Amino acid sequence: METHEKIRLNGNRDFSGNFDMAIKFIKQNFGPIARGLSYLIPLLLIAAFCIPNLFSMYYQMGTHGLNNPYEDFTVSSFLMAAIGYILLWLAMFAMILFTISYMSMYVKSDDGVVDNIQVWKKTAKVALPAFGASILFGLAFTIGFVLCIIPGIIVMVYLGFYLYAYINEDLGIMDSFQRSIELVRNNFWITLGYGLVFVIILSLIGSVFAIPYYIGLIASTFQVKFFANDFFFILSIMILFVGSLFSYIIMYTAMGVMYYSHRNKIEGNDLEFEIDSIGNHNDTPPSIPY
């Protein structure tokens, strides 16, 4: 395993401090996290194969004068599409749990080196309860969003750290939601603004991976037959899916950095220093560069 200087994630940081820390952590750990998640690529390939060729449908809509590109869809086509999107969701959910579990094990490590096999074991252990918690979170967000959008945003911000709390602090599901509210209380606007910054960054990165898809979609609409074939559609969808998977590492590591900062504000101590200093008589925490 490669060795590198461990970054101390626990610390009381402001907006710019969290942003700088997130960039630093991502630079150091994006590669190891991405390598661990590479096992999900075959799942995304299967998902891409399940998605019906939308380029072909739009091409036929132009050549045959179809008003609705989905009117030739069969029941089996809908089922295959559903399977494809379920597989995509499972891959993205596994990515989220893996990334948070990686950060949890990173914080507890001696040298910042994490074994991805152990991360996957931890991910599998928390998957089922986290799935149930995600359903509750999704329901709360949907209800809030339907009511007037703004309540949905409030729910998303206040409950957004529930998985971090559940995985890092070994809390129950409802306690994890309560912990997330506690972490965001008095930090709502900085959390919202910080999240929006990384949403914008993620959108810009995601738009790059979406370029082949939109080229195929537009070209097929304008009757360019080459782009309507199955190979180009699957290739463009695969690029989009894989790009999204790895791009979201940035979002969840960045929010993880803020989670540890909020947690430190409440607990008022450097958890990593306490772990590192067990058996060490020097009680002065080392300097932490931000």
Features of the shown structure:
transmembrane helix, DUF7847, 290 residues, DUF7847 domain-containing protein, disordered C terminus, mainly alpha
Description of the structure:
This protein has 290 residues and is mostly helical. The protein has helices spanning 15-37, 41-50, 54-63, 75-108, 116-148, 150-159, 162-169, 173-184, 188-209, 211-221, 230-267, 271-276. It has one domain. The radius of gyration is 22 Å and the shape is globular. Mean pLDDT is 86; it is low at 277-290. Keywords: Membrane, Transmembrane, Transmembrane helix.
Write the layout of secondary structure elements.
Elements: H1 15-37, H2 41-50, H3 54-63, H4 75-108, H5 116-148, H6 150-159, H7 162-169, H8 173-184, H9 188-209, H10 211-221, H11 230-267, H12 271-276
Radius of gyration: 22 Å
How far from one another are the termini? 26 Å
Q: What is the domain tally?
A: 1
Helix content: over 70%
Structural class assignment: mainly alpha
Number of helices: 12
Q: What does the overall shape look like?
A: globular
The largest pleated sheet is described as: none
Transmembrane segments: 37-59, 79-105, 126-143, 149-167, 188-211, 231-255
Protein name: DUF7847 domain-containing protein
Domain DUF7847: 126-248
InterPro entries: DUF7847
Summarize it.
InterPro entries: DUF7847. The protein has 290 residues and is mainly α. Helix content is 75%, strand content 0%.
